[in-house]
Amino acid sequence: MSIKAKKHLGQHFIKDMTVCKRIAHTYGSHKDCKKVLEVGPGMGALTDFLLEDEMGLDLWVMDVDKESIEYLKKNRPSLDGKIIEADFLKTDLKHLMGDEPFAVVGNFPYNISTQIMFKCLEMRNQVPEIMGMFQREVAWRIAEPPGTKQRGILSVLMQAYYDIEYCFTVDEHVFDPPPRVKSGVIRLIRNGRDSLPCDEKLFKQLVKLSFNQRRKTIRNSIKQFIKGKGVEHELLALRPEALSVDQFIELTLLVEANLD
Questions:
Q1: 206 CB contacts (<8 Å, ≥6 apart)?
Q2: Which domain covers residue 213, as residue numbers?
Q3: Is 175 in the same domain as 218?
Q4: If we measure between CA atoms, which residue out of 10, 229, 206 comes closest to residue 114?
Q5: Gap between the Cα atoms of 144 and 63, Å rounded
Q6: Is the dihedral of CA 229, 232, 233, 236 positive or negative?
Q7: pTM of the full structure
Q8: pLDDT, tens digit, for every residue of 4-33?
Q9: Strand 175-176, strand 162-170: pairing
Q10: Are residues 70 and 185 in the same domain?
């Protein structure tokens, strides 16, 4: 029995097992986190390597595809009780995984990969590691350092709480069906920030405002906060892709100090 990939679910099944093994063995059990939730396992190509004895993981798998769930229940009996038919984006992960730390791993469906990252960000204090495959341009964007045109909202918000490594590129031909783009694998490791030393809601607002008008300088994109207040700072003359997380924190503190 095999499963045909469903276009509306963004499914592309990996057929090269060396890629699956490489992804599994790049996972690092950050802070000795052995509980892992694999998102979008499909027919379990990556799952099998995560289940190897040497990994020693407490593996759970989640897929919205009923056919995949039935396949896994039949072919992966060792995961009895840990195969979850659910939409990751709509699932109460706290209720499912309890209070324990858990990592999120997967060949993520490209059409929801950004939303998956934002969901993990909400759970950041319980998710010490994320290991996943994305469309290559999205993977680049998440890992992109300051000073490059690819840097964006997701780059800054994820890097505020995670150290991010671009691991390797995966070619189209290793998938069935092959996507029209190359893929990239990245690893995100929770950094030491429990919280930001500024208003986190305002921080996110300023990041989004800045990148939504990325051709403008920071002064022009956030003028609603500083107009007519005589605020001067070297950061205001820069464009958003030039700013590091620490500089966006500094910008937030500057705006906070000038709020009415």
A1: 222, 225, 248, 251, 252, 255
A2: 200-257
A3: no
A4: 10
A5: 29
A6: positive
A7: 0.93
A8: 778 787 778 888 999 999 999 999 889 899
A9: unpaired
A10: yes
